[in-house]
UniProtKB/TrEMBL annotation:
It comes from Phyllobacterium bourgognense. NCBIfam families: dnstrm_HI1420. This is Putative addiction module antidote protein. GO terms for molecular function: DNA binding. SUPFAM superfamilies: lambda repressor-like DNA-binding domains (SSF47413).
Length: 98
């Protein structure tokens, strides 16, 4: 019997603000810029890339490119995308409780 592989899109699992917050928090905890950019892309797809593009004033194609595993969004883009998603950057000391 042949194995079946199914497409899995994590964006489909992000159906609440709480799920998005947990997903982004976990990604940011890695300190891996590429993973964080990709996680922002997943959330942008979950919330609607066209909507995020409209709210940030950035082109959808630009967002798809910079919010990917190979992307490298500027801080300005990151802040704009987070704001459009209803989040913001906030400093926190290492070891501080979330």
């Amino acid at each position: 019997m042949a194995e079946k592989f199914y497409d899995f899109d994590p964006a489909e699992m992000l159906d609440s603000d709480e799920a998005v917050e947990i997903f982004l928090t976990e990604a940011m905890a890695t300190d891996d810029a590429k993973l964080i950019a990709a996680a922002l892309g997943v959330v942008a797809r979950a919330k609607g890339m066209s909507k995020i593009a409209s709210e940030t004033g950035l082109a959808r194609e630009h967002l798809y490119k910079c919010l990917s595993e190979t992307g490298n969004p500027t801080l300005e883009t990151t802040v704009a995308v987070l704001k459009a998603m209803g989040f913001h950057l906030a400093p926190r000391q290492d070891g501080a409780a979330a």
